[in-house]
Each structure stands twice: as structure tokens, then as C-alpha cells.
Request: fold
Amino acid sequence: MASDTSVETLAAQLLQAVDGLIDWRAIPEDVRRKKYSIVSKRVAGIAKSAKSLDEFLERFLKELAGDALFVSHNKAKQLKDILDQVKADKKCEEEVLQYIKRHPYLSVVAYAARIEEGR
Amino acid sequence: MLKEYFPISVLARTEKESTIPFLDDLSHHMMVVAAANLATGSSGAVLASLLHDMFKGLMVWRAGVRGSNYWLHFSTKSGIYEQLIPSSIEVDAKQVASFIQKHHDSQDNPIRSVENRQGLVTSLESKLILDQVPGKTKALVIKLSGRYRWLLAFYINQVLKQQLTDRYSNTLREILAVRNVIYHYVPANLERRYSDIDNCLEALNPGALQVYRDGDSLHITLPVLRLPRQMMIAYGEFNALEQTEDSLRVPFGEALSLMAFDGATSGKAKLLYVDAGFTITLDQSVQTFLNNELKGRPHIAYSASDIARSLEGTFRGSYRCSFCGEEANSKLPLRNTSRFTSIHVLLDPSLYVCPACAVGYELEEQLRREHTYFRIPMPALVSKIRLRPEYDELTNFIRGDNYLMSLSGEMWLQILSEVWYQRYQQRHDASYLLDPKALMLPLEVEFIPQALYPLLHAHKKKFALESSLASSLVLPASVKDIDADEFQSIRRSYQHLGVSADSLLKRIKQIYEPQGG
Reply:
């Protein structure tokens, strides 16, 4: 049963939106091949010390993208929309952050599976 | 999606007062009662035991009332059971019918003697066997005070199950001239409003329910109301557990024995098996193990008897084993001591070791040489049970998510784990792997597979001593182990995300990096 408001889905959508801002073509092939493995370890490391969702996303994007940011209006809007949806409810924001902290690898599994299925 | 379920079938019993269900299957319950009656040598008692609850799947439970004088789970009509037994089966059909129809009343009834309060079935279901061996069972006692002992105990248990399979099969052949018992669960497409079993049976074709023999196998049909599809559970002389989407073959040894732990402080376990009139000793199991498993391997300086005594904790020696603390009387020259992380062992490569740990040590060395990825499936954890929607009239009858764990049901949890790992190795049915469920009508059981991994982690260290046997895992992984909590989170993600099971499983493999495939 798909549910767009489940904490699992929101966490996956957020990470997916950040992934969309990165110009993966500018990243070396050998790194790209291990993309999700690398991303999951980064998410785990950053989430551990992040005090807020904003801080987590900012650091995640910075560490992952480096100079390889590819921000289009459309992609930025996707991130903003999902972030607005999450932040509209303080409790929901906290739950999503806690979920990513507790399940960093699973969060990446989820967003990688969503990308694979073209969601 | 019914195909995702592993077929278990029909709930056998509930606790009398609370009506909370015991997790055990109907066919298994009848097989256990029959095995306990093998000791009587009576073909009538054994066949009656194999059939006695065969109409339980037709019982329409009603809220607050299960059984009463007018609503029994067996037929009281004369001639019904006699009709089911063909003349080709040499048995007194009248006696069989009498045993079945009086199995709740008569004191000297062979079925009742197994099912009564002091009997085998109640003992197993109440799980109150920590300090005593239940009636109609035999037990081999083993002491699990060290990790090498666990490793050895697992192998001895496997050997015992094979020995039991042969012995039960031979005994059954002597009594009923068959080696396997095959239960066919079949949907009974009846209207729901029937007053009693006999009323139901009138609407069924009795010819289709007749017991029959085909070669070495006895076939028994179990009609079940609202069963979604036909299923088969066979007990017999099989080498290993085998399952398909709609069938399961369980070796007798697996179905009629179990490892029961005495509790954390004693460190003892019992390898219990149903008493069918024969005895298998620990010495015999150890001897078979030495002949089969360690054949051609470095010489074990101890006799089967010494190893058996050591395993059960009665071996006498003047020293203490460096691995488990049990009594020992000779030193074992250890190879590859650099693999040990214990300073004590590193400084003295020749230590006093008890016979059981000496064999455990050799086993570990053997497995390491063979690079065997080694896993001991443990009984699955039940994370949720729920009433199937088509049985909604039982809402008041089956109380919420409660269930009682029974030792006899533990076999099913063990099987659920084993089947899950078989399917995992075959990468079979991703949706089942991520969200495993089983049917035990009228319930749906959600479970988490569990296994011990005694030879895990660092390849250059003593695996058995370094790994934690106390905690079960679903899958060990390089990046993050998948334990029960993580597995539940994965299951929830699968249920909520709406992505396909195949892509989720593929990414789990890529990101978690589970060990051993």
C-alpha cells in the first residue's frame, strides 16, 4: 500500500530531491558506480550529528555535490515543495529527521529504488 | 496476493479458557499424537490418531462458543469413519472410528492419553518443560556453556533428526505398512450455515475424503471451509525440508523433535523427541556424527562416549576447559594460535580442552578450510498475527493480536525461518522475502526469520569464539547487520513506498552488502 505521507516516503522523497540537484555526469565514473554505497555512508555520518533537518540537508548536499551542483528551477522547486510539506508540521519534520538518523541505509535504499522505478 | 504466503494451513488448538490460539498446525498436531501412539504397536490407535481431528477445518467457530455437545469437531454419526478407510488398509475400521469418536470422553482412549493434561500435547503446548521431560517424550541433555559446544550441538541435533527420521519411518512401516503420511488440505466449498459436522459431511462427497495408500505413502484429505487453495503437507522419510508454493515435505525427525532450552542460568538444553518406543542415545548420535562429519579429518583423540559425556556435562577430569569451563583432562595442541585474540591462548598454544570443545574446534577448522558460509536457522519471531478478513465473525473469538507460543508450534517457526533462508539463497519471490507471512487459518502470521552465525566476522580470527551466539540476526552485512528491528523497518518501507520488491531487494544487496550472498 503506497502512502505519500508515511515517514518512509517523505524521507525517501527528500533524499531523492537532493540527489536530483547533483550533476552526476560531472562525477568520475568509478565514484558513480558506487554511488548509493557512498551516499548511504555519507547520510549515516551526517545524520548522526545533525540537529535539524535543514542542517542535515545543507551538509548532505555540500558533502555530496562539491562543485557538481546542477540546479534547475524545476529541480529546486521539487526540493522546496517536499521540504515545505515536511516542515509544515513540526512533528513530521522531527519524525523524518529521526527516521533518517535511525535508518540512514534504508532511507538510501528507498530513494534509490524510487529512482530506479522512475518515480 | 495469496501466492506470497507460505502455506501452513489450519490452526490446531486454542487455550481452553481464554480461547487464545496456540500456533500449531492441525496436520502436525495429529502427526505428533500418532507418533506417540507408535509405542502402543496398535495400527488402530495410530491410524485413529492420524485422522482424529480431520474435520476441524469444517468447524464453524462462533463468538464465545467453540465446542459444545452439539457442535463437535468430529462426526458422531456411525459409519462415517469406517467409510473413509478402504479395505486395502489392514486395520480394524470399527476400532479406529471408536477411538476417534470417543477421544474426548473415554479414559483409556489412546488419543486422549496423549492429549490429556499430563500428556505430551499439553506439555508441549504449555511449554512447561524447563525442569522435566514431558510424558511420552525422550530427551538427550546437552550443556551449552561454550560456543564450540553450540557448534557441536547443532551438528548432533542434525544427526539426531536423521536418525529419528529413519526410526520413525521404520516403526510406522511395521505398524501401518507406510513410510510417509501426506495430508492434503482441500477447500470445502460449502455454504456457511451448517448446524454441525455431520450436516457439513452430508454436503461433501465422502468418496473424495477417503484415506488411500499409494506405494509407501498414506494420503489423508483434510477439508477446510474457506481455504483459498489446495495445500499439501507431507511427513516422512525425507532427507531435508522441501517446499514449493503449495506443498511442504517435513522429515519425521524435524516434525517430531525439538531443541528446548532450560533457561539462561543452567546453560542446558534438551533434544526432545516423541517417544515411539525406541531409544536413541547421545553416544549413538555422536558416533554417527564422527563417522559422517569428521571422516578423514584430523584424528579426534576422544571416544564417542567421552564426547557424549562431555557434551551432557558429566565427563570427569582434573582440569577446566579453557573454552567452556567444563571438566577436562588432557591438553589440545592448537594450530594457528595467532587467530586467537585471547592473550591466555596466544601465550600457551597447548591448553586443557574438554572433549566437546576439542571436537568443536576441529569442526570450526574444517568449516574454515572449506570456506563454508555457515548459518543456523532459529525459530522465526512472530511480529504480528491478524484474523483473515473472511473470518471476521471470529473477531470476538480470537482475541486481538494475542497468541500463545507452544513448543510444538516452535517447529513451525523453525520451518518458517528455514524456508525463508532457502528462498533467500534462491532469490525467490522478492515480495515474500521482504514481507514474509504465513497462513494458519483463520490467522495470518507475519514473521521475522532468525539465524545464528557462529563463524562470522574476521576471517583471520577464531570465528566461533569471536562471534556472538547470543543474538540472532536476519542477515549479517558488511555495512549494517540486518537485525529484527531493521528487518521490520525494511518491511514497513516495502509496505509504504509502493516500489517493487525486486528493486528494493536489489538496492538492499547493494547498500547493506549482506554476507554470504
